Amino acid sequence: MNKTEVLIIGGGPCGLAAAVGAAKTGAHVVVLERDERLGGILTQCIHNGFGLHLFNEELTGPEYAERWKEKVAEFSNITTITGAFCTSIERAGDKWVVTASSSGGLIEVEARSVILALGCRERPAGSIFLNGERPAGVFSAGCAQKLINIEGKKVGNRAVILGSGDIGLIMARRLICEGSEVVGIYEIMPQSGGLARNITQCVQDFGIPLHLNTTITRVVGKKRVEGVFIAPVDEKLRPKYELEKFIPCDTLLLSVGLQPENEIAKNLGLEFNNITNSYVVDEYYQTSEAGLFCAGNVLHVNDLVDNVSAEGERAGECAGLYAKNKLKYAKKIEITHDDHIKYTAPKYIYDDKNGTAKISFRVNKNYKRTIIRALSAGKEISKRPSPAVTAGEMQTLFIDKTKILNDLHLEIEVME
Ligand SMILES: Cc1cc2nc3c(=O)[nH]c(=O)nc-3n(C[C@H](O)[C@H](O)[C@H](O)COP(=O)(O)OP(=O)(O)OC[C@H]3O[C@@H](n4cnc5c(N)ncnc54)[C@H](O)[C@@H]3O)c2cc1C
């Protein structure tokens, strides 16, 4: 059996940054990646917009991944193995054993710390109860992205997009650049789930109609999609069938959410969050099992890869310190929040009166003017006025941990 101090499952931006973070502690690191290439979802994202925060540049996805591959290559204590699909993770005393399947046979690695950096996958048609027929021409937006950007194939001539998450918005622009027509984007919610910059740059700049409070009620077509029925929805998201309208098209792209790739650790009984559909972590990105860490899109769906890399690097550093018995704990505090906030990551921080904690969270809907506050023992210890917070954008708040007294509560005052 192979042995290492830190094992990382997934060689996307989170896994690569985690490898660098762990290697800096001096730990020996192994990265197992199922694909033949490192870089994760970024290898198919040929648009720019990556790395603005971290490198102060607008890089394409492959360029951003390349930067991290170069960093990984600087460390002789990192081994990366591609073409290795991890199938199980088990406790073995104070260590973990991860099994992966590869073309050369099974790989077993024993590690003191493991980082889950498996990213997420797209929700398929079945998960949204899409009615109607099942002809060819229905793609998830990411699948269409892979076919166009990696395999050089055209997916259709006249497309409708259901859902307005970032991948759908980006693919609307991409389809137009590839000579297809985009009839419209239909979003069931009253707001888009995508970043404001993607709505401007990918939708408005290309004159693509974005219909909010609207959904697809039926897909029509025998061999190939011939069209879809769309209808506005009421306040309970029920379609108003009397207003149904037929939209002829030959392609339907689904951009209806992402699902964390969390199955591998499901039998370990980890503390789970039904909102993120993933595991709960402390400020070290450690799950409820000591030595098992989780970061990036498998922890919660991020909209900016820079945040994923920052999270991964921190998780890697903590996993490295844990492997060397140098990770320091203090009294564990649960972060609570009001109803404007859907969840926080991390959920727990340590009251060590030392340094700054970064708390990421999402709000339940769009708000205009707000003040985001952190309270401890009823006193305000951090505050961030914001001209607008949207459900599609991850929010962050930094907390000076020297100011924490026994508890930590996050709340949002809505001014407008
Ligand atoms: C279409 C699209 C467009 C985006 N556009 C932008 C943008 O413009 N700007 C921006 O900043 N961010 C963007 N993002 C977000 C950003 O790309 C993601 O947040 C980031 O890729 C998440 O990194 P990750 O490492 O957590 O997951 P991933 O990139 O998904 O990497 C996870 C890796 O784990 C591997 N893996 C999974 N399961 C296993 C297993 N069992 N065994 C071994 N390996 C496994 C996968 O093969 C993959 O390589 C976009 C995302 C998408 C999907």
Give an overview of the whole structure:
By secondary structure, the protein is of the alpha/beta class. It has 3 domains: about 1-120 and about 260-325, FAD/NAD(P)-binding domain; about 125-255, FAD/NAD(P)-binding domain, CATH 3.50.50; about 330-415, Immunoglobulin-like (Sandwich), CATH 2.60.40. The protein is about 20% helix and about 35% strand. It has 6 helices and 29 strands. The protein has helices spanning about 15-25, 60-75, 140-150, 165-175, 195-205, 305-325; strands at about 1-10, 30, 50, 60, 80, 85-90, 95-100, 105-115, 120, 140, 160, 180-185, 210, 215-220, 225-230, 245-250, 250-255, 260, 270-275, 280, 290-295, 330-335, 340-345, 350, 355-365, 370-375, 380-385, 395-400, 410-415. The strands form 8 sheets. Strands 1, 2, 5, 6, 7, 8 and 21 form a 7-stranded mixed sheet that branches. The chain has a 5-stranded parallel sheet with strand order 10-17-11-12-13. A 5-stranded mixed sheet has the order 24-22-29-26-27, with no helix packed on it. Helix 1 (about 15-25) packs parallel to helix 2 (about 60-75) and helix 1 runs parallel beside helix 6. The N and C termini lie far apart (about 60 Å). The site of flavin-adenine dinucleotide has 36 residues, from helix 1, strand 3, strand 6, helix 3 and helix 4.
